[in-house]
Specification:
The complex is a heterotrimer. Chain A folds into three domains: 92 residues, no CATH class; 117 residues, Sandwich (Immunoglobulin-like); 89 residues, Cupredoxins -  blue copper proteins (Immunoglobulin-like, Sandwich), CATH 2.60.40.420. In chain A, 39% of the residues lie in helices and 18% in strands. Chain A has ten helices and twelve strands. Chain A has a five-stranded mixed beta sheet. In chain A, helix 3 packs antiparallel against helix 4, helix 6 packs across helix 10 and helix 8 crosses helix 10. In chain B, helix 8 runs antiparallel to helix 9 and helix 10 packs antiparallel against helix 12. By secondary structure, chain B is mainly alpha-helical. Chain B is built from 19 helices and five strands. Chain B is 63% helix and 3% strand. Chain B folds into two domains: 544 residues, Up-down Bundle (Cytochrome C Oxidase, Chain A), CATH 1.20.210.10; 37 residues. In chain B, the strands form two sheets. Chain B has a two-stranded antiparallel sheet. Chain B has a two-stranded antiparallel ribbon with strand order 4-5. Classes of the chains: A alpha+beta, B mainly alpha, C mainly alpha. Strand 3 of chain B pairs parallel with strand 1 of chain C. The structure holds heme-A (HEA) (2 copies), dinuclear copper ion and copper (II) ion. The site of copper (II) ion has 5 residues of chain B, from helix 9. Chain C: Pfam families: COX3. Chain C: It is a multi-pass membrane protein. Chain C: It is found in: Cell membrane.
Chain lengths: 341, 637, 205
C-alpha cells in the first residue's frame, strides 16, 4: 500500500483548512474512501504541490522586482528595449522549468487516468442508476438472477468489490457524483455511461447531482452506504422481499388501501401490492432509507407525514404534486409507509 | 515647421478648425443618433457595460446573501436560478466581451494616429445591435421572463419539453444579437489594424495592445459562428421542431456541447487577450521602459490564440468521452501554461529592470498578477482530465473562473480605465481614492473567492440555491459573502471616483503618464478628428525618442479621409474616404432587432423581417453620386 | 510629468491616390472578414453534419428516401456556369468599363433570379422533412444556410444593378462590383462540399 503510506507522509496541505472550519467529511474528495477517489486524491496533492511551488516562485519574483534597489546610474528617463542578457537567460530557464513541471503534471494525469481504466477489469456487480428530475432510481441485478430489484435515492455497496454503475437518464442531463468514492460521470440521455466504484472504507457517504438539471437541482442528493459483505447480502435480501399486507393493524391496512386506490399508486410502486406506478420512487422499503425525497429531509415518521402533506413546501417545484388528504387519511398512509422497512 | 504639441495650441490653428468642422456631428439628439465617431460610440459602449457590470454585480450579491447561511429564503429556487443565469450571461456576453471591443474601438484609431475606424458606420451598427441584445435580456427580466438555465443552456433541459415558455428563446436570441455585434466590431478591428497603420509602423513595430486586439478579433471571427449556429439550432428545435438535439430521433445531445464550447473556450481568451494588451501598456509606461521580450510576448499571444481552438473538450471531461481523447485535451490545455507563463515572466522582468512608479494603474497590474496567476494555476488543475472529474461543476471551478475573469480581465480593465481616463476626459482621477478602491476590491475579492476553492473540495456543487447545514459549508460561505460585499463597496468607490473626477480632477494635459504610444500625442480629450496631421513612426515607442514626432500633411482637411497603408510594411497606399454620420446603422439595427425578437414567436418573422432589413441596408450603402448622364437609364433633362 | 512632445511636419501624403482596388482597397478586407465568418459557419455546419452522421447507424436512416438529383443537378450546373459571366464581370470591373459592368451585373441578377427559382424547386425534392429525424434536420440546415447566401447575394446584385443603371459610376463602385463578384465566387465554392454531402454522401454510405 504505497499509496496509503505516501498519503500519510505527504504534508497534507489541504487538510487543515476544512478541518479548522469543522466541516463534515461525508461529501468531499479530500476524504477518499474508495480506490478511485484515493487515486484522484494523490493526483490532487501532486498538482497542489507543483502549482503551490510555482505560485510562490512567481510572487517571490514579483515582490523582489518591486522592492529591489535600483542603481542610480540607470538612465533617468524612459528606455526603449535595451537587450538584457541576464533576463533572457532566466527566461530560457523559466521556460524549461515550466515545460518540466507540465510534463510531470501530464504524466501524473495520464497515470491516474490509466489507473481508473484498469480498475474496470475487476469483478463487478451490476447496478443501474437512473437520473430523474430530481431523484435517483436505483436498480440492482438480482445476484445470480436476471431480474432487477428497485429502490431509490440510496445506494448500498459492498466493501472491496468493484461495482459497475450503469448511468441512464430518464429526462435531462444529470451528473452522478459521490466524491468520497470517485469523480463524477454525467448521466446523459441517449448515452450509456458507466462508472466503477471500489469502496475501501465502510460507512455513510453522500452524493449529489452535479450537473444543473432544473429547478430543484440543489435537492438531488444520494445516500451511499458502504457495507461489509455480510451486511450487504442481508440488505439485498431484504430489498428483494415484496410487501406483505399488514395484519392486525387496521390503520396500516387503511393506509395501504388509500395508496392502492388513491392517487399515490398511479406514480409509486409498492411491490406486492396494487400500487404499480412508475413516475415516482419505489416505496417498497421506503422506511429503511436514510433520508427522504433525495436528501431533502432526514427519514422519520414526522418527515414522511410532512412530505406527503406538503411536498411543494418541502421541495418547491418537485414533480410530486400536492394531494389534498384528510388528516386521518394522511396519518394512515404515513403509518403504513413507516412500517415499510 | 516645428511646434510643441499642447492641448490648446492646435485648436487655434485654422487647419484644426477646418478639420473640426469636417468631422463634426450634427448638434443635439440627431447628432447623438447618427454619430459614427469611434470615441463617442466606444464611450457609450463602455458606459453601458459599466451599468451592466453593476447590475450583474448586484445579482451576485443577492446570490451571495442567499448562500451565506444554509437554508435561507432570500431567493427561492426560481429566483436563484434566474440570478445566476442572468449574472453569468450578462457578465460574459454583455460585459466582458463587449467592453474589450469597446476599449479597442476607442483606442485603436488613436494608437494608429488615425481619424477613424475602417468602417465607422459598422461600429455604430455594432453598438446599436448590442443595445438590442441588452434590452432583450433585461427587458425580459423586467417582464419576468428571465432565462433560468445558466449561461450555457444544455439541451434537453433547454428543449421545449423541459423549458416551455420563452425563457430559453430569449437567452438564445440575446446571444445572436451580441454575436452579430461582436463580429461586426471584430471585422472592423482587423481591417483597421491591418490596413490603417501609420507610415513606419511595420508589424514588428506594432504595440502589443494592437497585437492583442488583432488576435482577439480574429479569434472572434473564427469562434463566434459556432455559437450562432448552435443557438439557431436550439431555437429551431424549439420552434419548428427540428431534432438536432433529440437523441431518440437521430439527433445528438453532445453536439450542442461541442459546438458551444468550440466557441466558449476561445471566448474566455477573447476576454483575456485584450487584457494582456492593457497590462503590457501599463507595465511599460510605469516601469519607464519597453516590455522585455516583445517578440516572445507577440508569439505567446498568437500561440494562445491558436491553441485556444483545441481545448474545448476540457469543459466536457465528465460527459463520458473516450479517455484517450481526454488525455490529448489535457495536454493541449496544459500547453497553454507555457505562453501564459512567458507573459507573466516578461511583465515581472520589465518591472525588475525598470523603475516602477506606483500610480493607480500600476497597482492594478500588481493585483492582476497576484490574482490571475492563482486562477491560471487552478485552471491547470481542472485541465487534468481525471482530476477534473472531482473538480468540475463545483465551487472550485467557480473560484477558477472568477479568479481569471475578475483577476485576469476586470482588474486589467480597471487599470486600463484609470490609465486612459485622463486621455478620454482631460482630467486625472484621484490617487487616494484610487488606492482605496484598489485595496478594497483586490482584498475583498480574494477574501471572498479564495474560500470557494476549499468549498469545492469540500464537495459543494455549483448552481445550488441552498445547502444542508450538516455539510459544514456555512462558515466559508459566510466569508465568501463578506469578501464579495467588500469588493463591491470598492467598486462603488471606483465608480464614484471616476464620476467625481470629471469635475474635480486635475487637468491632465496630453501626456500625463509619459506614455510611449501615439494616443498620447493627441490632446486630452482628443478632438473628433483625433490628429491634425498623420504621424510617422520609427520605433515601437514613438513618443520616447528624443527627436520630435514627425508628421505628414495631405490627408483630407475639408473632406473626411483616412490613410490606408500596406499590410506588413505600412507603406502609405491611398487616401480612403471615410463615412459621414448616418441614421441608417441605427435603423438597420432596429430592423434586425425586430426580426430577431419576432423570430422567438414565429418563424415567419425571419421572412418578413428581412424586408425592412434589406431596405435599411440598401439605404445605408447607397452611394452618394450624381445621376447618370449616360446609359439606358440616364437622366433626361 | 506631463511632457510635451515636439512635433514637426516633414512631408505630405497629398499625392496619394484617393482610391484603390483589389486587396489594397479597405472594403476588400471587410468583405474578406465577412467571408471568413460565413465560411467558418459553413465549415462548422458541415462538421456538425458529419458528427451526426458518424453517430447514426444508417445514413439516411431507414425509411427516408434519398434526395432527387434532378433539380439539384440543374442548380449545380447553373451555379458553376454562372462563374463564367461572373469572372467576366470581375475583369470588367477591374478594367473600369462602365457599360460592360452594367450589363454584367444585370446578367448576374437575371442568373440569380433563375437560380433562386431552381433552388426553390430543389427544396421540393429533398424527400425528407426537417422534423423527421437527425438526418432531415441536418440536410435542411445545410440547404437553408446556403440558400440564405444565394438570396442575400441576389438582393445585393439587384440593388447594385439598379444603382449602376441610374448613377454615374465612380472608382469606388467598380470596387463594390469586384466585391460582389468575389462574394458570388465564395457562394459557388461553398456549394460544392454541401452538394456532395447532401446529395452524394447518403448514396455512398
Ligand atoms: C478570462 C478567462 C479565463 C482564462 C484566462 C482561463 C484560463 C484557463 N482556464 Fe479556464 N475557465 C473560464 C475562464 C478562463 N479560463 C471560465 C469562464 C470557465 C467556466 C465556464 C463554466 O463552466 O461556466 C473556465 C473553466 C475552465 C475549465 C473547465 C472546468 C470545468 O468545468 O470542469 C478548465 C479545464 O481545463 C479550464 C482551464 C483553464 C486553463 C488551463 C487556463 C490557462 O489559460 C491558464 C494559464 C495560466 C497560468 C497557468 C498561470 C501563469 C503561468 C505560469 C506562472 C507558468 C507556470 C505554470 C505551470 C507550470 C502550471 N478553465
Ligand atoms: C466577468 C465576469 C464575472 C464577474 C465580474 C463576476 C463577479 C462576481 N460573481 Fe460571478 N459568475 C460569472 C462571471 C462573473 N462573475 C459567471 C460566468 C458565472 C457562471 C454562471 C452560471 O453558472 O451560469 C458566475 C457565477 C457566480 C456564482 C455561482 C453561482 C452558482 O453556481 O450557484 C457566484 C456565487 O457566489 C458568483 C458571485 C460573484 C460575485 C460576488 C461577483 C463580484 O461581485 C465580485 C466583486 C466585484 C468586482 C471585482 C467588480 C467591481 C467593479 C464595479 C462594481 C464597477 C467598476 C467598474 C468600472 C468603472 C469599469 N458568480
Ligand atoms: Cu440532477 Cu442536477
Ligand atoms: Cu476552457
Amino acid at each position: 500500500m504505497r499509496r496509503m503510506v505516501s498519503r500519510a507522509v505527504w504534508p497534507a496541505v489541504l487538510l487543515p483548512l476544512p478541518l479548522l472550519c469543522g466541516c463534515s467529511s461525508t461529501q468531499s474528495p479530500l476524504f477518499p474512501a474508495g480506490q478511485q477517489a484515493a487515486n484522484l486524491y494523490d493526483l490532487l496533492l501532486l498538482m497542489s504541490m507543483v502549482c503551490g511551488t510555482i505560485y510562490v516562485l512567481v510572487l517571490g519574483f514579483l515582490v523582489l522586482s518591486l522592492v529591489r534597489k535600483r542603481r542610480a546610474s540607470v538612465a533617468p528617463n524612459t528606455v526603449v528595449a535595451p537587450p538584457d542578457k541576464g533576463l533572457r537567460h532566466v527566461l530560457v530557464v523559466w521556460s524549461g522549468f515550466i515545460i518540466a513541471a507540465l510534463s510531470v503534471l501530464v504524466l501524473g494525469s495520464f497515470l491516474a487516468d490509466r489507473g481508473l481504466a484498469r480498475m474496470q477489469d475487476a469483478e463487478v456487480l451490476d447496478v443501474r442508476v437512473n437520473g430523474h428530475q430530481w431523484w435517483w432510481r436505483i436498480a440492482y441485478r438480482e445476484p445470480g438472477g436476471t431480474s432487477w430489484i428497485e429502490t431509490a435515492n440510496e445506494l448500498h455497496l459492498p466493501i472491496d468489490r468493484t461495482t459497475r454503475i450503469q448511468l441512464v437518464s430518464g429526462d435531462v442531463i444529470h451528473s452522478f457524483w459521490v466524491p468520497n468514492l470517485a469523480g463524477k460521470t454525467d448521466v446523459v440521455p441517449g448515452r450509456n455511461n458507466s462508472l466503477d466504484l471500489t469502496p475501501r472504507k465502510t460507512g455513510w457517504f453522500r452524493g449529489q447531482c452535479a450537473e444543473y438539471c432544473g429547478l430543484q437541482h440543489a435537492h438531488m442528493a444520494l445516500d451511499v452506504k458502504v457495507d461489509t459483505a455480510g451486511e450487504f447480502a442481508a440488505w439485498i435480501a431484504r430489498q428483494k422481499e415484496t410487501a406483505h399486507p399488514p395484519t392486525g393493524d387496521a390503520v396500516a391496512s387503511r393506509g395501504l388501501a388509500l395508496i392502492e386506490t388513491g392517487t399515490c399508486g398511479l406514480c409509486h410502486t409498492i411491490r406486492g401490492t396494487a400500487a404499480q406506478g412508475r413516475a415516482g420512487p419505489d416505496l417498497t422499503h421506503i422506511a429503511s432509507r436514510h433520508s427522504l425525497a433525495a436528501g431533502s429531509l432526514p427519514m422519520s415518521r414526522g418527515a414522511l407525514q410532512g412530505w406527503i402533506a406538503q411536498p411543494q413546501a418541502v421541495k418547491p417545484g418537485t414533480l410530486m404534486p400536492f394531494i389534498p388528504l384528510e388528516p386521518a387519511d394522511l396519518n394512515a398512509i404515513a403509518h403504513y409507509l413507516e412500517q415499510r422497512q | 515647421m516645428t511646434f510643441a504639441l499642447q492641448s490648446n495650441e492646435p485648436k487655434t490653428s485654422e487647419r484644426h478648425a477646418r478639420l473640426a468642422q469636417t468631422w463634426a456631428d450634427a448638434p443635439g439628439i440627431w447628432g447623438f443618433l447618427t454619430t459614427v465617431d469611434h470615441k463617442r460610440i466606444a464611450a457609450r459602449y463602455i458606459l453601458t457595460t459599466v451599468v451592466l457590470l453593476f447590475a450583474a454585480g448586484m445579482l451576485a450579491l443577492h446570490m451571495r446573501l442567499q448562500l451565506s447561511f444554509p437554508e435561507l429564503k432570500v431567493l427561492g429556487p426560481q429566483g436563484y436560478n434566474e440570478a445566476f443565469s442572468l449574472h453569468g450571461s450578462t457578465m460574459l456576453f454583455l460585459v466582458s466581451v463587449p467592453v474589450m471591443e469597446a476599449m479597442g474601438i476607442w483606442l485603436v484609431p488613436l494608437m494608429l494616429g488615425q481619424r477613424a475606424l475602417a468602417f465607422p458606420r459598422l461600429a455604430a451598427f455594432s453598438f446599436w445591435l448590442y443595445v438590442g441584445g441588452v434590452m432583450t435580456l433585461w427587458v425580459s427580466h423586467a417582464l419576468d421572463i428571465t432565462p433560468d438555465l445558466g449561461w450555457f443552456e444544455y439541451p434537453p433541459l433547454s428543449g421545449s419539453a423541459y423549458s416551455p415558455g420563452h425563457r430559453a428563446d430569449i437567452w438564445a436570441q440575446m446571444i445572436t444579437f451580441t454575436e452579430v455585434a461582436a463580429l461586426a466590431a471584430s471585422v472592423n478591428m482587423v481591417a483597421t489594424i491591418l490596413k490603417m497603420r501609420p507610415p513606419g509602423m511595420t508589424l514588428a513595430r506594432m504595440p502589443l495592445f494592437l497585437w492583442a486586439m488583432l488576435v482577439a478579433s480574429l479569434m472572434t471571427i473564427f469562434a463566434m459562428p459556432a455559437v450562432m449556429l448552435v443557438t439557431s439550432m436550439l431555437i429551431s428545435d424549439r420552434l419548428v421542431s427540428t431534432v438536432f438535439f433529440a437523441p431518440t430521433q437521430g439527433g445528438d445531445i453532445l453536439l450542442f456541447q461541442h459546438l458551444f464550447w468550440f466557441f466558449g473556450h476561445p471566448e474566455v481568451y477573447m476576454i483575456f487577450i485584450p487584457a494582456v494588451g492593457f497590462i503590457t501598456a501599463i507595465v511599460e509606461t510605469f516601469s519607464r521602459r519597453t516590455i522585455v521580450g516583445h517578440t516572445a510576448m507577440v508569439l505567446s499571444v498568437v500561440a494562445i490564440g491558436v491553441l485556444a481552438f483545441g481545448l474545448w473538450v476540457h469543459h466536457m471531461f465528465a460527459v463520458g468521452l473516450p479517455k484517450l481523447g481526454n488525455s490529448f485535451f489535457t495536454a493541449a490545455s496544459l500547453a497553454i501554461a507555457l505562453p501564459a507563463g512567458i507573459q507573466v515572466f516578461c511583465w515581472i522582468a520589465t518591472i525588475w529592470s525598470g523603475r516602477p512608479q506606483f500610480y493607480t494603474p500600476f497597482l492594478w497590474v500588481i493585483g492582476f498578477i497576484i490574482t490571475f496567476v492563482m486562477g491560471g494555476l487552478s485552471g491547470v488543475m481542472t485541465a487534468s482530465a481525471p482530476l477534473d472529474l472531482q473538480l468540475t461543476d463545483t465551487y472550485f471551478v467557480v473560484a477558477h473562473f472568477h479568479y481569471v475573469l475578475v483577476g485576469g480581465a476586470i482588474f486589467p480593465l480597471l487599470g486600463a480605465f484609470c490609465y486612459w481616463y485622463p486621455k478620454a476626459t482631460g482630467r486625472m482621477m484621484s490617487e487616494r481614492w484610487g488606492w482605496a478602491s484598489f485595496l478594497l476590491i483586490v482584498g475583498g475579492f480574494n477574501l471572498g473567492f479564495f474560500p470557494m476553492h476549499i468549498l469545492g473540495l469540500m464537495g459543494m456543487p455549483r448552481r445550488v440555491y441552498t445547502y444542508d447545514p450538516s455539510l459544514g459549508w456555512s462558515t466559508l460561505n459566510m466569508v465568501a459573502t463578506l469578501g464579495s460585499a467588500i469588493a463591491v463597496l470598492g467598486g462603488l468607490i471606483f465608480v464614484a471616483n471616476a464620476f467625481l473626477s470629471l469635475w474635480r480632477g486635475a487637468p491632465a494635459g496630453p501626456d500625463p503618464w509619459g506614455g510611449s504610444t501615439l494616443e498620447w500625442a493627441a490632446s486630452s480629450p482628443p478632438p473628433q478628428h483625433n490628429f491634425d496631421y498623420t504621424p510617422v513612426v520609427n520605433s515601437i515607442a514613438p513618443l520616447w525618442s528624443e527627436d520630435p514626432l514627425r508628421m505628414l500633411d495631405g490627408v483630407g482637411v475639408s473632406r473626411r479621409e483616412v490613410l490606408v497603408s500596406s499590410l506588413a510594411e505600412a507603406h502609405p497606399e491611398y487616401r480612403q474616404k471615410s463615412a459621414q454620420p448616418s441614421i441608417w446603422p441605427l435603423l438597420a439595427a432596429i430592423a434586425v432587432s425586430i426580426m430577431f425578437i419576432g423570430s422567438i414567436f414565429t418563424p415567419w418573422a425571419v421572412v418578413w423581417g428581412s424586408l425592412p432589413i434589406a431596405g435599411a441596408l440598401t439605404a445605408w450603402f447607397w452611394p452618394q453620386r450624381p445621376r447618370s448622364k449616360t446609359g439606358p437609364l440616364r437622366v433626361r433633362v | 510629468m506631463a511632457t510635451q512632445k515636439e512635433v514637426s511636419v516633414v512631408g505630405s501624403l497629398a499625392d496619394l491616390p484617393d482610391h484603390a482596388n483589389g486587396a489594397r482597397h479597405l472594403v476588400w478586407w471587410g468583405n474578406l472578414g465577412f467571408m471568413l465568418i460565413e465560411g467558418t459557419g459553413f465549415a462548422l455546419a458541415i462538421a456538425a453534419y458529419l458528427y451526426v452522421l458518424s453517430h447514426s447507424s444508417a445514413w439516411p436512416p431507414a425509411g427516408d428516401a434519398l434526395p432527387d438529383l434532378g433539380w439539384s443537378g440543374v442548380f449545380t450546373l447553373g451555379l458553376l456556369l454562372s462563374e463564367i459571366p461572373n469572372l467576366w464581370l470581375l475583369r470588367q470591373a477591374r478594367a473600369k468599363k462602365e457599360q460592360a459592368v452594367r450589363i454584367g451585373i444585370l446578367l448576374m441578377t437575371v442568373i440569380g433570379v433563375g437560380l433562386t427559382v431552381i433552388r426553390l424547386l430543389e427544396f421540393g425534392h429533398l424527400n425528407v422533412r426537417w422534423s423527421a429525424d437527425g438526418y432531415g434536420s441536418m440536410v435542411w440546415l445545410l440547404m437553408v444556410l446556403h440558400t440564405t447566401h444565394v438570396f442575400t447575394e441576389l438582393g445585393e446584385t439587384a440593388v447594385q444593378a439598379l444603382w449602376l443603371f441610374t448613377h454615374e459610376v465612380g472608382d469606388n463602385q467598380f470596387s463594390d462590383v469586384e466585391d460582389t463578384a468575389n462574394y458570388w465566387t465564395f457562394v459557388v465554392l461553398f456549394w460544392l462540399p454541401i452538394y456532395g454531402l447532401v446529395y452524394w454522401m447518403p448514396r455512398l454510405s
